[in-house]
Amino acid sequence: GLSQYSSDPRTEWDLSAYSTRDQVLEAMRSLRYKGGNTFTGLALTHVLEQNLKPEAGARLEAEKLVILLTDGKSQDDANLAAQTLKNLGIEIFAIGVKNADEAELKQVASEPLELTVYNVLDFPLLSSLVGRLTRVLCTRIKEKSNKENADIPVNTGPQLSPTDLKISAVTSKSMHLTWSPPLRPPKKYRIVYNPSKGGIPKEVVLDGAVSSLQLSNLTSHTEYLVSVFPIYDTVVGDGLRGVTSTLPLSSPRSLRVSELSHNSMRLSWKAAQGATQYLVLCSAAPDGAED
Predict the structure, then answer these.
(1) Average pLDDT across the chain, whole number
(2) Lowest CB count within 10 Å: 58, 74, 106, 256, which one?
(3) What fold is seen in the domain 161-244?
């Protein structure tokens, strides 16, 4: 499978797209280079959530390897995203070209670094790595396969994926999530949420025995996308997704004017729940400046 990234990762083809060497090579020849920024952390998260899923061709019993090829220093936190993959037993090989940051490559890559980190001065020199990298990859797959626990089930669906996401008790600042766990309890859950019209995704990691979460400190009157991913030792199951909007903040009501004089008036209103201050604006009608 292959994804390219800049500020927005893009899947070029999934693991299940091609079944022969010639098909893969032809796809490579047709590939168009994607220029732009270097958000490596976002790219690694994309690979985890989109490319290493059963519906993208990831087989539960197969070893999971990610080869990161980059020519620059990441503009976001690549280390945190890489650690999430490594904690799931996914092995990362980091290959730097030109302006890549070698210290970052070593942070992102799996141990032992002498086998998983490579750095060359320019793109044509990548060809010098092919033979060694191929031997290392094949050896690592064989080593890990020999240690693999044979009783991991191959089927997915309800076996590995939660169902029935419910979002309730929605307020202007919070919401409550519940879901039904899969037949095989996961090691952990990863809950990702962010405003649908843009915003930095936030995440919470829960123990696999828990199947509910209270999200707090949200923005009022905002539509949120919520995803729940079950995490196992060697795979991430299918995620649950939901959309809901927080409530608007309550408003003051029943504005009344009294005690009018030539230069003053008294205003009164019913309080807005949760308000700590009020801002009062007034202007001379019809188009005077606000005071």
Answers:
(1) 87
(2) 256
(3) Immunoglobulin-like (2.60.40)
